[in-house]
């Protein structure tokens, strides 16, 4: 059986009494785009810096193709790195910036010239080789930083919040370029971001960090449809949480009551809760059905606001308990016609698309 390309085993990092990373373990496949996603202070960047060799773990190991990296200093790990700040040499031209890591590795002039041209084509900056970084936009500078990091064909490319300084339109443009370059080069990428949309747009898999540990790892659709913890459910996509009474729970399925006779069966449940206790029901706004008349088990709510968002309508509602529920309906949905603030509506959902957290 072949070993994973990159292995992280039990990484822990302590700063005095503070544990920044606790027992992070994962396997990365060759050519994979894996994103570390989480809020500030969750341990994602610390893990990346340990991979890069900028920091040493308190315990644990990292292996690349079966060989440990921990004894190898950062400048000899042959790992590419792209930061939030482009870290380009301002006194060098674009071509000279891209050539720099090749010259450090004592490549011949012919090899350097050929590789610089190849990298400029890759990031679509042909003809920019004689410009200085100050003469380029932020997005162009980030492309140069990416070209420089890939110039020496590293087996792994690490990217730490590389687009957070860019505006939304430019960020989306560079996301598209990064995805294209990854598909073209098939380099293994580990990418750090706090932006869930960016992670979903770019990644093969996402590792969701929380308080120094990985809460869950999976593809975007897996994390969205089957969150294993409340934190993942809240962090990936939009979600509503309301209280419910846990009537029974077995084999990973729960029966709950929302009051007023609204009982729902066969809802995936996470955590151990005893019958008769309170739990939290998680619903995705786009998976909630809204109707004007009651039909079967449903939850009555009052419309508190209606917001037009282009291709969809956001309906804010409030239950009799005073809990907020957001509903997202496609533009033109029949339930929207004539709907006003203060109207009573009835909400229901597919139990398989909901989750209960105890």
From TrEMBL:
GO molecular function: ATP binding; ATP hydrolysis activity; transmembrane transporter activity
Domain ABC transporter intervals: 6-236
Domain of life from the UniProt record: Bacteria
One CC-aspect GO term: ATP-binding cassette (ABC) transporter complex
Signal sequence annotation: none
Family, as annotated: Belongs to the ABC transporter superfamily.
Pfam family, one: ABC_tran
Source organism phylogeny: Bacteria, Pseudomonadati, Pseudomonadota, Alphaproteobacteria, Hyphomicrobiales
The keyword Metal-binding is assigned to this record: no
InterPro entries linked: AAA+_ATPase, ABC_SmlMolc_Importer, ABC_transporter-like_ATP-bd, ABC_transporter-like_CS, Mo/tungstate-bd_C_term_dom, NA-bd_OB-fold, P-loop_NTPase, Transp-assoc_OB_typ2
Name used for this protein in its record: ATP-binding cassette domain-containing protein
Annotated keywords: ATP-binding, Nucleotide-binding, Transport
Origin species: Rhizobium phaseoli
Alphabetical GO biological process terms: putrescine transport
């Amino acid at each position: 059986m072949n070993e994973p390309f990159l292995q992280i085993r039990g990484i822990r990092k302590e700063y005095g009494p503070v544990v920044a990373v606790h027992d992070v373990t994962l396997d990365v496949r060759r050519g994979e785009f894996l994103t570390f996603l989480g809020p500030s202070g969750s341990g994602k960047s610390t893990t990346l810096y340990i991979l890069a060799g900028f920091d040493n773990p308190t315990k644990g190991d990292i292996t690349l193709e079966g060989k440990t990296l921990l004894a190898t200093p950062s400048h000899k790990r042959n790992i590419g790195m792209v930061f939030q700040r482009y870290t380009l040499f301002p006194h060098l031209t674009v071509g000279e910036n891209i050539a720099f890591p090749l010259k450090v590795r004592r490549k011949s002039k012919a090899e350097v010239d050929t590789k610089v041209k190849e990298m400029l084509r890759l990031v679509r900056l042909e003809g920019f080789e004689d410009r200085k970084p100050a003469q380029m936009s932020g997005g162009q500078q980030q492309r140069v930083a990416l070209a420089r990091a890939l110039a020496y064909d590293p087996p792994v490319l690490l990217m730490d919040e590389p687009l957070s300084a860019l505006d939304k339109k430019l960020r989306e443009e560079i996301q598209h370029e990064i995805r294209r370059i990854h598909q073209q080069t098939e380099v293994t990428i580990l990418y750090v971001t706090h932006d869930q949309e960016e992670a979903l747009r770019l990644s093969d898999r996402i590792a969701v960090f929380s308080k120094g540990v990985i809460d869950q790892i999976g593809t975007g659709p897996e994390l969205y449809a089957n969150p294993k913890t409340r934190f993942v459910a809240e962090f990936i996509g939009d979600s509503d949480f309301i209280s419910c009474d846990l009537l029974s729970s077995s084999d990973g399925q729960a029966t709950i009551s929302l009051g007023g006779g609204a009982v729902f069966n066969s809802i995936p449940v996470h955590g151990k809760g005893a019958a008769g206790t309170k739990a939290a029901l998680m619903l995705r706004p786009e998976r909630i059905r809204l109707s004007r008349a009651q039909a079967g088990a449903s939850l009555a709510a009052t419309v508190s606001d209606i917001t037009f968002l282009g291709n969809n309508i956001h309906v804010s509602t409030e239950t009799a308990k005073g809990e907020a529920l957001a509903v997202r309906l496609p533009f033109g949905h029949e339930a929207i016609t004539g709907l006003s603030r203060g109207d009573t509506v009835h909400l229901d959902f597919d139990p398989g698309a909901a989750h209960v957290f105890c």
